[in-house]
């Protein structure tokens, strides 16, 4: 490989903003995800083993292997799609960004605006994933497990990354790349912790504003209406009429109506 080709490949795999490397909260958090998953496994096992307990074991070996392998494949795809996610944003921010450079650093209002904007963009992306054939073909992998636990958060379809970046491009007009990368990554990290059955309903002001495990259980439940598309803030679902509360009398049933028979089929993890 020539020097020019190697340089272009490096620029694609490791795109950088003018100020240097972009923040990567997800990459930083990945080493934390696995110990937290193990802790949930142990808590689930202990809860199910208590005398007189009717609590189910939340992890099955087959589905957990499928979830973790899907997560590994997603990481590999993300590495090769890094340029697609970042370079168009960098170009648009450089040529069409409207934010004065003096306001781009250490501005609390910019961070607040970026947090809200990234979350709105995720909400729109997530609704698209559920409302269209293209979106669902990419997203169905995430909903295909009959288990619901922290490892389910890693069960992602690689195809989502080929077009999810389009929903965030408008942010380049006002949000510097490093701020965008930070808040989009934090949004993803937050969502990991909503995939659990061990956390019940939280204090009502938090349930009113945040996307909590209770709200996200409803989103994954096949016996509830398709709802609760939020990433961090459930307020978007409340505003746009897609909110559905968890009912104590209606236990959530997870997975697809037509369930894949094995958790190890390659196409079940990779196909779009």
From TrEMBL:
GO molecular function, one term: iron ion binding
Alphabetic keyword roster: Lipid metabolism, Membrane, Oxidoreductase, Transmembrane, Transmembrane helix
Matches recorded under InterPro entries: Fatty_acid_hydroxylase, Sterol_desaturase/TMEM195
Residue ranges of every copy of the Fatty acid hydroxylase domain listed in the record: 113-242
Subcellular location per the Swiss-Prot or TrEMBL entry: Endomembrane system
GO (cellular component) term, any one: endoplasmic reticulum
GO BP: any one term: lipid biosynthetic process
UniProt superkingdom: Eukaryota
Membrane-spanning segments: 26-45, 65-87, 107-124
UniProt membrane topology term: Multi-pass membrane protein
Family: Belongs to the sterol desaturase family.
Name of protein: Fatty acid hydroxylase domain-containing protein
Organism listed in the record: Chlorella variabilis
